[in-house]
Specification:
The structure is a single chain. By secondary structure, the chain is mainly alpha-helical. The protein is built from four helices and two strands; from the N terminus they run E-H-E-H-H-H. It has a two-stranded antiparallel sheet. The longest helix is centred in the C-terminal third of the chain and has 15 residues, at about 75-90.
Length: about 90
């Protein structure tokens, strides 16, 4: 929820007297409530698009890192990073 507006009273709202032909000015506050159900639905869709975690592969990589035997294809990793960054950017 977001509330916008000033909390301090304005000179117009302090004044209780109105002069002939002029109206008192009031501040306009607004409240915005997010659609929680819509956010939950978007989160479900995003989670369903994520790949499954393969614990056995994570354990193999962890063990190789601990033993100092992990081999990485630097070119493949950099290519993946660039492709991922390009796909996330809106070029339109």
């Amino acid at each position: 929820m977001r509330i916008q507006g000033s909390s301090a009273p304005t000179a117009a709202s302090k004044s209780t007297k109105k002069t002939k032909g002029s109206a008192a000015k009031t501040s306009h506050d607004s409240v915005q409530v997010s659609d929680a159900a819509g956010l939950r639905e978007r989160a479900k869709v995003m989670l369903s698009d994520m790949p499954d975690v393969r614990l056995e592969q994570i354990e193999e990589i962890r063990n190789a890192l601990e033993q100092g035997t992990y081999q990485m294809d630097h070119k493949a990793v950099s290519t993946y990073i660039v492709r991922n960054a390009l796909s996330e950017h809106s070029w339109g």
